Amino acid sequence: MTEQTYYYSFLEHYSKELAYVARELENSIFTSPRTMLTHARTFTEAIIKKVLITEKLNKEIQTALVDQLELLDDHGIIKPEVRDALHVVRMNGNKAAHDVRQFRYSEALLSWEAIYTIVKWYIEVYGPIEMKVPAYRDPQPKQEEAYDMAELQVRLGNLERLLTTSIQNLHSNEQTDDEAEIAATSLEADQLDTTQNETGKRAPGLTTIREITYQGDAVEIPYFLRDAFLLPQRFAKSERFLVRLGAEEQARIMSELPADLEGIHKHVKRYNESNDKALFEELQVYIEEEKSRRKLILERPGELFFFYKKDYIVVTEELSQIWLTKEKFTGIPSLLRQLNEDGIHQVGQLPQELVILAKYKNVGIGTVENLFEQLKEK
Fold first, then answer.
1. Which of 31, 223, 246, 321 is 20 to 30 A from 253 (CA-CA)?
2. Does residue 213 carry a pLDDT above 90?
3. Are 139 and 31 spatial neighbours (Cβ–Cβ below 8 Å)?
């Protein structure tokens, strides 16, 4: 088992939905114990519903979890240690959902151990005969960037809806063939699980938080861009349009954009439908560029970059110490003079987003591109 493999990956061959929710629970133990405890209850509730369906107790699916557990206990379906583990997860989940106090890692770890008891019993009784549950393993704190709690809630909500749908399909079809269930839902689960990079590591921030549409087309807004500042200079065809919209408090940040861009030009005078279309097209490009930049930053932590459109430069110590003078950089005297007036004398003092430099008087995007190319040469 490699360092990158999450513990419940063995469940993927049986139920991708359960496996993916369990993965998020493991990832959230050391980032948000409250989130882990709340959704651990939902995870075990899904397992109990699967058991009720298999045991032909479908009518009890809509009852409270505590009643379901009592029913299974009365029928001798669950062993005492499994019953106790289920109540641990249930009660901890209830507390986390309602109590405003800070929850501890140790509490999340107790529920994590209880989940192991539950899953092991479930697989041994209802899973494929050939499936073996690995020995219990404590989760390890991740050194990489973690999900923000709000994003984690979105991810778990999406996965839990998929899990609920699979259970509803199973219930309505009265289907007990696990392979048929996997075949019906695995594609959706694969499509949902798009927030990992090529190395298998998690990529925080890429969960879709909302969609923006235009005439039937849609662009997904990743979580890390939910309140991103829409720098007008990043939108070559829509720069002046964005400036005008910003003055009307309509498009300064991503969250100010409406769900449908069609008609956004009506907030300002002398613009039309073609501007809506151009803004949507450039928004698509902007999001892809930002996702590429974020991937680069995650893969190369601790490094400084200069970005210009879809290109970038790694800023070495040597490069950062070069003076911004007419002798070092030719053909851009006005930009250099204004930078020096603002106290920017060395390359390392330049903004990470170089297109911002187009704000200076008599400095166009061509001048910024000229600077960027000279920086690349150096």
1. 31
2. yes
3. no
